């Protein structure tokens, strides 16, 4: 299947579940695809904390158009995938031969860490074939001139499109300083201007990839001096859709759903979503399937709920690193039993594992809990629980971070030694993301000096933040502190130092 750059949008969850028992009262993904600045499910930009002796470093990924793309335009996942050979019986259950699943449950936590995503290929081999093998021996400026000269000699829109993408990547690489120098800004704008002109010519000749790429550039402001032009973007998405471009159809659907560059039109949105999904787009299949089940976009009725399950099945089979929510959403249905989605916790676990493999935060969180508590017919397995919590945490999920906090407080030898300092650091990461329970916990750690220097004043700041969100433990703690200040008893007994925190 074809690959495309990361989407630049946020999708908001729907209000009002259907009248019948609805699995979407569970924590469902909030985006049709991972947003570049968020979760669907998208990746966070916070500085990663490494779990000592238990994780490998995860490569950073930028989410701007043309950044770190492979030759086909798709970014590689920054999340550790679940891989490995099938597990022996007694450690984890065998994979079903008749159901959607990953290869099998990993043999061990260490085996899972051995998988690393493929490195992006940015050698411009598509263009180099037209220049010659000696191009690699030239400096970048002379190589660019050789590429430019050869592109001018051809009328092939594919070659022109690839050259334009290379110019976009070079434009990104110009910004080496923070803030960028005037020379860097000028060089960047010159490269983007040239790329825009080349893409415009190719798009005018009906090249669908150029139409989509140019549209995405207008949507993000990349080709318009950082000023978004959603109207122009929507027009280009429409043009590419007429030629069967599934990603452009998906983007056009989002534009008509949310009124980006055009008026809100749910009828058109349904048409675009259905077309893109029928062409095998996992993001469109996920969004359209959820709309059918929740009654959104005017899709109300039992027949649409049945159709929604079918579309989610397609999304689950087509899922990848960029659109990884399909298996998770279908798993939510099978975990509780919903309509034609029969009740099967084991199958739900397989679907969650599939999404987690592609870096879905909530799927990683769900499997972390399953292996911690022995849910979904999974055995209690500290190593796998830590692995999945870590996957959620690295994706910016605050509850996943709190899962790691719990494991660091108690330890799970030999996989993970207890480490109060790491527990504090992960709790602080979650607290900085506004998670009320983590804010209370950071305050408690600071008050007691658990994993950090004792600082009652700073602890009080975090208690107040948590209490402002209605966190009951923080409210009670502030009450005790006020009583102590007035001459009452202060604090909890030392024997309660780590009990009942999580």
From TrEMBL:
Q: Specify where the region named Disordered lies, as residue ranges.
A: 1-99
Protein species of origin: Eremomyces bilateralis CBS 781.70
> Is Glycoprotein found in the keyword set?
no
SMART domains, per database record:
SEL1
Q: Does the keyword Repeat feature in the UniProt annotation?
A: yes
Q: What are the alphabetically sorted keywords of the record?
A: Repeat
Gene3D superfamilies xrefs: Tetratricopeptide repeat domain
Task: Give the protein name, as stated in the record.
Answer: HCP-like protein
Which intervals carry biased composition (Polar residues)?
25-48
